[in-house]
């Protein structure tokens, strides 16, 4: 991991861009930390530059609670090379949605499964690098979207102790089955009127998670309309489980 | 309203039992209050004595947040005279549940509608009396079960500004329709594995509420297993809306 730039935000948070091989990422650490900070991995749907305003908002919130926060670019997003197969799957999905047709499971599989297969080891490599920094300790939480990545990480990565998952993307049947193996505490956010989300699938997925502590917070509004108080509640969940 | 007893709890909260005509009730006020306190009405399924340990726990939590809290006995519960028709409906419900049969809407109507018709004006009378006390100001929140009473109160009582509703009892179709007229902010608690609760009905009811701000918090566990953190989140909802 190589740091490529560094700046102090107005609230004192230190923001550093890094490169992990070919993968760009951003690390935020609290203004003042007396001990190594717990870490929140900030998931997103891809496109660091486009997503930056929302990511930095979530990172500042985490830093104010005493957490370091980090994110990396997803395979095929932003400046990273895209794959022909993924682009084809994305086009097929768009066509189905525009035609108002039900989306074939086969399209979802083609779109999401390769992404999960590729992204999860990258998040794990990022975790190796981040946890070797003296200013970052543990435990680690995962927060975010592409819920399928969150599910797989929760199953395969024992260093992740708790997760805030955003319902609101297509979930392959295989990941649905993996959800039953998740045992860490979960806090699931569901936007009740999310135009791109199948509400019943999100409820079924919540039901499927194997965790003994799991909470669903459903709020009105569309995909990007998570209310401030719901963000606060998610932050409190991490404070309960990562401190 | 006549106070019939008074004691200081160990945390300084003043607990006073009262009688509102034939209706017994309990009022809790914070240990120290510089200004008239907002009021939380604490709903419950009936039987003040049996429910006391849970009620006083909720009242202490409210008092710690600076709220007064009050409750009254339900018609037909505790020492209040029961009605033959309600007892018959309750027996019919029990029989259906024990036989594992679906519960007829007609039984739910006979059980719940007369309770709502009678209880809601009593809560309003209690509100008149409580708000005339110098130590209680407003605004007022309703917190609790018999969700049908909460729905009707939210529709007909303009002094109630926000409500925490516990999904988990049978809801007559007529109240389901009234839910669409509710416009105050709502915080709905759903115990995901509540043995006596129809989960799909609770989700449909949440969907029906007309409020622009409504949040559903679903947690694992049975009817009385609301986790501590979920109680804290409900308290924060009142702090946001009643202060």
UniProtKB/TrEMBL annotation, chains A, B:
| One Gene Ontology MF term | hydrolase activity
Asked if the Swiss-Prot or TrEMBL record annotates the protein with the keyword Cytoplasm, the reply is no
**Mind listing the UniProt keywords for this protein, alphabetically?**
Hydrolase
Name the source's superkingdom.
Bacteria
Tell me if Hydrolase is a UniProt keyword of this record: yes
Name the family. Answer: Belongs to the AB hydrolase superfamily.
Q: What is this protein called?
A: Dienelactone hydrolase
């Amino acid at each position: 991991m190589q740091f490529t730039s560094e700046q102090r935000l107005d609230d004192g948070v230190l923001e550093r861009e890094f490169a992990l091989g070919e993968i760009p990422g951003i690390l935020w650490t609290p203004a003042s930390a007396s001990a190594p900070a717990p870490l929140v991995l900030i998931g997103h749907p891809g496109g660091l530059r486009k997503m930056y305003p929302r990511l930095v908002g979530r990172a500042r919130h985490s830093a104010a609670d005493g957490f370091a926060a980090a994110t990396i670019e997803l395979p095929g997003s932003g400046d990273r090379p895209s794959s022909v197969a993924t682009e084809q799957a994305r086009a097929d999905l768009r066509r189905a949605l525009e035609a108002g047709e039900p989306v074939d499971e086969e399209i979802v599989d083609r779109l999401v499964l390769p992404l999960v297969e590729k992204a999860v080891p990258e998040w794990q490599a990022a975790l190796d690098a981040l946890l070797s920094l003296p200013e970052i300790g543990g435990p680690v939480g995962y927060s975010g979207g592409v819920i399928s990545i969150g599910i797989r990480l929760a199953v395969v990565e024992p260093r992740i102790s708790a997760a805030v998952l955003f319902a609101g993307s297509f979930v392959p049947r295989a990941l649905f089955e993996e959800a039953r193996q998740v045992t860490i505490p979960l806090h699931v956010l569901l936007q009740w009127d999310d135009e791109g989300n199948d509400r019943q699938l999100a409820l079924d997925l919540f039901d499927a998670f194997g965790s003994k502590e799991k909470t669903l917070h459903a709020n009105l509004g569309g995909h990007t309309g998570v209310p401030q108080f719901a963000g606060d509640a998610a932050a409190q969940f991490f404070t309960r489980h990562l401190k």
